Fold DNA-(apurinic or apyrimidinic site) lyase.
Amino acid sequence: MPEGDTLFRIAAGLAPALTGQPVLALVLPKSSQRVAHLVGHRIERVEARGKNLLVFFDEGSVLHTHLRMSGLWHLYRTEDPWRRPPEQATAVIEVPGYLAVCFRAPVTRLLRQSDLARDPQLAALGPDLLGETFDLDEALRRIQEQPDTPLGVAIMDQRAVAGIGNVYKSELLFRQRLDPFAPVRCYPEEELRALLDLARAILVANVQMPSGPWRYESPGQFYRYTRTTREGRVPGRKATMYIQPLGGGRRAGALAVYRRARQACYDCGTLIRMKRQGEAQRSTYFCPQCQPSRREA
């Protein structure tokens, strides 16, 4: 599932081509909703909210997509060939010179802007880590309202705090040396606050990075870097950027724990493990030595 900063960068990549442009065509191939009335209207803005992408139209409609595990957006020049089969498209927006195509998004729907505040999927979102006015106290309160929930599950709950995905979950908890499987009540407020502070700092740093692969050692002592894919979600943009703490012998461009099960921890040499947790059985990668089991007092 894309992380919050991935959606932010997708929105930033689509916005220059779409914002202010008239809609020449709009198709939702997998939906029965009427969309023809939007042709001729202009796109006001493209916005990311947590892991949701919203395209606002000047007549009051909003296109909402959630990519979950399989979805992605591509931006093409009108004459360019698509890099995915047309039957995978769930939304196609044509404006002068460009086609924005969303592929395989499980959630693709048209809403009214006036209904966003009451929409069950969007109104329940917790404070957005990439929001201009992120409310850390509110996010902390929502996490602490789940005292019996394992920490690795609680910080992935978008109703508590929006923007943390599976990669950041594992990397952040390793960075802070926190046990993903201990319930929230095992953690004092200062540890949870520090975790959220770091999460916001890293996501903000990643979306502010200029394009191009590079390595940066910040005062906070973590790597920031990009990696490219053959199917960049927006041409000229990079895929999700990850982070890791600095450590002896660590290689630039390597995640600390994510997808490193049965490989040696860069810090202590213990084999990284993976366990699934939560109703969705999402994978959690951790070092049993660096992240010892948290026992309740």
Observations:
- The chain has a mean pLDDT of 82.
- The longest strand covers residues 43-49.
- The first helix runs from residue 4 to 18.
